[in-house]
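Notebook p. 47: complex prediction with flavin-adenine dinucleotide.
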Amino acid sequence: HPTILWFRRDLRLDDNPALVAALRDGGAIIPVYIHAPEEEAPWEPGAASRWWLHWSLAALDESLRNCGNRLWILRGPSLEALRRLVAETGARAIHWNRLYDPATRARDAEIKQRLRAAGLHCESHKSNLLFEPWEILNAGGQPYRVFRAFWRAWSRALNGRPPYPAPEVIPGLPQDRPEPGERPRLDDLDLLPRIDWDQGLRATWTPGECAAWVRAQSFITSRLAQYGEKRDRPDQPGSSRLSPHLHFGEISPRRLLALIVTAFGDPTRGAAEPYVRELGWREFAHHLLYHFPETPTEPLDRRFSAFPWAEEDLETSLRAWQQGRTGIPLVDAGMRELWHTGWMHNRVRMVVASLLTKNLLIPWQSGARWFWDTLVDADLANNTLGWQWTSGCGADAAPYFRIFNPVLQGQRFDPDGAYVRLWCPELARLPNKYLQQPWAAPQSVLADAGVRLGVDYPHPIVDLAQSRARALAAWERIR
Ligand code: FAD
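Predicted complex, structure tokens below:
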């Protein structure tokens, strides 16, 4: 009897526990992907994620073909699709790797229960995190809400099985067996955009497991040692840019850790530590989402439910922020990088989120939604943590009064202005002194640089000092 292997956000053959378990069953394996975005509502994959998913599924199919098998594409609802497949193929078992967002958790629990009731062997596996959310708890058996304490427990517990190597052969159904039923092809899922806005994504990324390995290896050998120093610099390639690969499970955190250990030894000390700590943040975010599943829309710190957001017309400023036309160079550079490449540097994510939620007093949920649609690494756990952290309402959030000043942040982390000049070329000829604050430049300097404020580049949509005072006053009302 064949075994069904249900791929979701674990689009790899290496270190894939569900695949290992399916191979142990000994029969043919039917690898499936079920297209059912509505089952992830209200967080169906956004446009940039769909683009990534398309190419990642294509890469997975190719890897499976190299192992003598191939990817079956089905349409949801998932339960019905699986039932039909079981009926058509006589499969007796099904394996998948666990996800942690509330919608898929509820769906998976129901599917497991129904299929088991129908006599199927149905098993889920740990694959996308090093520790399950119920494995790292404080002494009182409660989830951690402070990263430092979580990190201490998490990093001490690091151990474990080595990653599973990718198999060379994945037996499929006999070749001559006719494929039952009409199946959609990958192209039929309409994951790619109908209008051509994705050139920037194509130029920046190669989705899929092979590309994830190449990126991981080259980061570890040539940049990880300087990560601690360079990670905050958006003008330099200091971080790993593995986030979309990790989100789609094209490389497992266990594999990544094993590669780091091979190169650097103890991952929680020395040069590797700052990077492994970020992998710790990723796990912390997933643990929080699991234990506090309402947080994608509700603040963890409940005082913020009554936060006095701005009442004026928010649409205009929200649109200016989305389009990278706020008149504040570092913010505009970040928002344009996001639109063009589907990714934004972490330091700049914090700065643009702080401007939106504190200076403009626009609810963090609006920013999180925009990121959701435009990021190739859009991840419910990490995005929720990032937005709640920056706006002050999350676990272990920065103290509210730490409002990022985008001018100072730009001067400190983009000191030569290379990042702003790349994404805001209309400002490229401004001297460094005024690049991060063109509104402060004398007319003669603007004229020399060919910048007409309000024509070539917008006046700032908000006064940074006044809006900072307004945000602090708003905070006083709820604290
Ligand atoms: P690196 O610095 O190389 O870090 C390695 C890996 O660690 C990343 O790939 C990521 O998986 C994880 N990681 C790093 N920083 C964080 C963090 N602060 N929280 C959780 N995990 C982290 N990250 C996402 O993956 N998806 C999101 O949707 C997302 N939204 C964010 C929204 C806001 C407002 C903020 C402030 C941060 C957000 N982040 C998100 C976290 C972080 O910005 C990205 O993970 C990081 O920029 C990805 O680049 P990298 O792979 O080069 O990271």
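Notes: The chain has a mean pLDDT of 96. Residues 231, 239-243, 246-247, 278-279, 281-282, 285, 346, 349-350, 353, 371, 375, 377-379, 382-383, 385-387, 390 surround flavin-adenine dinucleotide (CB under 6 Å).
Next step: compare against the earlier run before touching the bench.
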